[in-house]
Amino acid sequence: MAKQGATFSAFAAQGSVYRISAVVLFVWALLHFLFSPSTPNISNEEAQAASRVALQHKIETAQVGEDGFKILAKDYFEDFYGAQECKISSTRVYNPMLKSDGSLMRPYCDSKAKLLDALSGGGRVGFNAPYHPRDCEYRWFSAEEACMILDRFDAVLFIGEPRMTANIYGAFNSLLRKNLAWGALKNWELNEQQRQRCRCDAQYTNPQCGGTSTGSGDHFIVDSTEILDAKEEGTKTGAPYVCNRVFHGIVNVNSEPVAQSTLEEIDEIMTTYHKTAKPVPIILQQGLSLGFNWDRSTKVMDAVTKQIESHEPNPVHRPVLWLGPQAAGHLKPPGAIIEQGNNALHHFSIELSKRARDRGFDTLNLYNMTLQADSFDGTMYGGDVSLTTAMMILNWLSRVESL
Ligand SMILES: *[C@@H]1O[C@H](CO)[C@@H](O)[C@H](O)[C@H]1NC(C)=O
């Protein structure tokens, strides 16, 4: 007691300086408490009410997109290289429908089957407007989330055709490199002129860049090991992947019967990368080089999957997604209409997805997604369509079972 008293008197003895500072401090605290715009001990209800008001304001002032819905989705391309140059924001292709209170009008698809049905059966509200799946929403994953999805697998393998699947795999790379300007391409292969020319949509549509039928001017990335190589070369770096832990690549098939060398390429990938009990998902697309012949396309489907089966007998460890063709663009040359016109393409899509399902495969049709999208010639869509398709494939991958 004595000690405390002593301390107190010592404190008081220090003079009025302390008393004045105490009063000043008290007055300051009082004023701060009375006039501060956000008091620190705001209640939960008040915070919620404030955020409701903020959201309401955001909704009221939000721009209306091409699809007539207000754009409130996050722009996932904000920190992508080339987003401004290519004039693309993710909200231009992905704009989930919202209620007036800002919540989702339709829930996210709650199963893999519903997701694929919704993605295959959706539509656009106007030409080139964002594509809306039927009945439920899909997600737009960030590159970091895509990395977590890929980590669930030993490898991810695209098997398809130049001018169809190669564009989609190109866009897949663009997403993982956060690079919209030339993320689909082996930029280190390009000379200065090509570097200028092969940017944004031109990556996909210019035959000197990626989109070629002969493969001669094909600068699309073929597999994920190429990016590592480029990185090691130092000066030729360009954009590395956000993550590069899981092998992914594309094997191009363009003959029926499937060439022996193609089957060996598939063998080699399975032997090299399928080392654990994690699955190797396969994205399979075929048709254009076979004139969309049903039986020949089925033969390729069977030959390729038989080869994979010889390495991995358990279908759970080698899930297959059969990818239907895109619709014919409205600028398709008349000569190609009979074989590849939209009527033929729709029938091909329906029949082949039935055959694929009979074999236990998942299916995703791109017909409805491309029906109202701008295309150069029906086989070469720009970045929008390829990026959207690549994101749909990531949605499928996120739903595939893993360990
Ligand atoms: C396109 O969408 C419609 C309506 O949802 C659906 O019936 C049709 O099967 C879809 N087409 C393809 C090729 O999947």
Descriptive keywords:
single chain; 403 residues; alpha/beta; Rossmann fold
Give a structural overview:
The chain has 2 domains: 48 residues, no CATH class; 288 residues, Rossmann fold (3-Layer(aba) Sandwich). It is 42% helix and 6% strand. It has 15 helices and 7 strands. Strands 4-3-5-6-7 form a 5-stranded parallel β-sheet, with helices on both faces. A two-stranded antiparallel ribbon has the order 1-2. Helix 4 runs antiparallel to helix 15, helix 6 packs across helix 15 and helix 11 packs parallel to helix 13. The mean pLDDT is 86. The site of 2-acetamido-2-deoxy-beta-D-glucopyranose has 10 residues, from helix 13 and helix 14.
Write the layout of secondary structure elements.
Elements: H1 2-13, H2 16-35, H3 44-61, H4 112-120, E1 123-124, E2 131-132, H5 143-150, E3 155-160, H6 165-176, H7 192-197, H8 202-205, H9 224-232, E4 247-252, H10 260-273, E5 282-284, H11 294-309, E6 320-323, H12 337-340, H13 342-358, E7 362-364, H14 367-371, H15 383-399
Parallel strand pairs: 3-4, 3-5, 5-6, 6-7
Antiparallel strand pairs: 1-2
Helix pairs in contact: 4-15, 6-15, 10-11, 11-13
Bound molecules: 2-acetamido-2-deoxy-beta-D-glucopyranose (NAG).
2-acetamido-2-deoxy-beta-D-glucopyranose binds next to helix 13 and helix 14.
